[in-house]
Amino acid sequence: MDDISEEKAMMRGSGVPSTTIQTLAPELLAEIFLHCGFPHPYQSSIRNCSQGPLLLGRVCSLWRTISVSSSKLWSRFAISGYRMSGIDCNKGLQVINLWISRSGSQLLSIYIHYDHDGNHHDEEFIHQAFQLIAAQSWRWKDITMTIPSRFEGTMLAPFQTGCLPQLESFDSTITDKINSEYFRSIDLPAAPRLQIFRHYPDRGTGVHLEFGGQMHHLKSLYISFPLCPQPPGMSLGDVLACLAHCPLLEELTFTINRDSQGRPQEIPSIIKHSHLREFSLLLDRRFNPGYVFDTLVLPALVKLHLVMERDRYRDYTDWPYLKSMLARSRPQLQRLRLDNVGMSEATLIECLAYVPSLTSLSLCDSHCTDALLDVLTMDENDPSRSMCPCLETIEILSASHFSSGAMINMILSRRPSMNDTGMGHRKVLQCVDCRDSDMGSIAFHPEIVKCVSDGLELYSPDPFE
Questions:
Q1: Domain assignment of residue 458, yes or no
Q2: Residue 448 belongs to what domain range?
Q3: pTM to 2 decimals?
Q4: Mean pLDDT, the chain, as a whole number?
């Protein structure tokens, strides 16, 4: 910590600015520092004299004077955990106070990374540091933190006290494996400018969103965690509540492991959401999201990832709700990933008919046959009958029953040949992963060898296993 003492190593340098620098007005230099300096908080560690305004202050006395007086330069900073002595702890707190003081009334962007078990001096420093930072929550703008669960209460408390008038982005990762039966309420009206909220509690405390009956400006919402063992988390009702109260939402990722007792009464029977582009759901085996998909119309959807933790004794024989949602929405979907979604092959094929714009298809534990490959094989005589002509990636990560011939035909129909005059509006197939299927290896087929040499990524069953 000695190298960041207030008046010592932080300010070493030649002390004599160049002639060119001397001709620039201090106001202009301050703007140059802001626009060409250190845009990300992690580039301005409070402990590192070779970063941020600490570095600028070491160049010469002029730069030191300007950097110290430019409050915006001190409004972005990073705190990382290190092994500390008692002396280091006290100095560290002094440095945080210095940065906060020099930032004036500027909005704060703060990066925190502390993911290890430290000694008692570390714990003391981090606990007091978080209290100092939380006391400034009224001017938080961007917060990114990776911390143990024992500290998250301090950093989440401003959501309960209503002191986040300027917050735009909040990204938290909770690192330890401590299980909790509790969850913390996130009062969104406390942060009226919030656009990004991401929370990843790795078996720590869950969160519950409170909307306060208001509309919110969220654009990205990510709350995800391992299903087992799990903290109390989100429900299917929360999914609908988010979409009903956040009309500008573009990205939504939820882990569902809490029962909502069906559709909330205040939620409309149909929710048409015109901005949602990326939608990911990871579901506990106890819950069927059918009524959620029956409610949604998502015309802007570009990416859909659905993971259903299936119970072998209560699996769905056919899950039709995705098909009906796609039929209503007709989105320009580009990426579709289905993990353990219990639908028949015929229903899956119907789903694909509604998304001709698809560029990536990934299926896990979907037991498919040559019927799927046949509809994905391009018809040269009638291109209008070809399904998903834009596919570039096909992953079928399950023990599906394909024949080698059907797979070869599908691949060749989506790759250029010597007789092709062009691929028209089609995309060229770039990657095929069928390594878990029970067909024979196709890697040594002469035409497939040519495709691989021309750039195709192929993962097929190992002939030697």
A1: yes
A2: 359-465
A3: 0.86
A4: 83
